[in-house]
Design a protein that fits this description.
The two termini are about 30 Å apart. Helix content is about 20%, strand content about 40%. The protein has about 200 residues and is of the alpha+beta class.
């Protein structure tokens, strides 16, 4: 489960790097006015978990039916931060964290695609960890960052993300093999889908 990025570290930013368990006490409360379900490539993702680590930072996670936040295969994320942070500052903070992670995670890999005309950017990355038995857990994420203003006019960034996870060495190897064919279509859909519009 994405681990909350230090607000100070980002200037308050958005990252949510995977592979850490969500608190069992977290609630699936819609804090953004985006109750879902969110449709992505014909599949419905329902709100499963939310958190507000600070006054300016809200994160929500959405899952297909039958999956849990503790052990999901697919997930969508919607996050907002209204501290005045710019899109590329949020992206750079995430990239910095991924670069630091390379010291302990040999599978870290990433690519940034910037859409200057739209004022957006997309970060496509892989992270991994090992379970108690030494088996790999591999996670592929694509995060779309866009400019955002809340109902009060506070400016910042919205993140719309997709995530895929595989558990165990065989499943992890299979996911990494599939990514060559999976990534382009998923990324194209993510960049073209309408961003959630939080209710006032």
């Amino acid at each position: 489960m994405p681990a909350t990025l230090s607000i100070a570290r980002l200037g308050a930013a958005l990252l949510v790097l995977g592979l850490m368990a969500t608190s069992a006490f977290a609630q699936a409360t819609d804090r953004l006015g985006v109750p879902g379900p969110i449709d992505f490539e014909g599949e419905a993702f329902v709100l499963a978990w939310s958190s507000q680590p600070s006054k300016t930072y809200i994160k929500q996670e959405y899952l297909p039916a039958g999956q849990s936040a503790e052990r999901y295969e697919q997930m969508m994320l919607v996050e907002t931060i209204t501290s005045g942070i710019a899109v590329m500052d949020a992206v750079r903070a995430q990239v910095d964290m991924l670069n630091q992670r390379k010291a302990t995670d040999p599978l870290v890999n990433m690519e940034v695609i910037q859409n200057e005309a739209a004022g957006e950017a997309l970060l496509d990355f892989i992270v991994s960890s090992k379970d108690a038995n030494g088996q790999y857990i591999v996670e592929w994420n694509a995060y779309r960052y866009a400019r955002y203003s809340d109902a009060g006019g506070n400016r910042g960034v919205m993140l719309l993300g997709i995530s895929r996870r595989a558990y165990g060495n065989d499943a992890a190897k299979s996911l990494l093999t599939q990514l060559k064919g999976l990534r382009p279509g998923r990324i194209k859909t993510l960049t073209q889908v309408r961003l959630p519009r939080p209710a006032p």
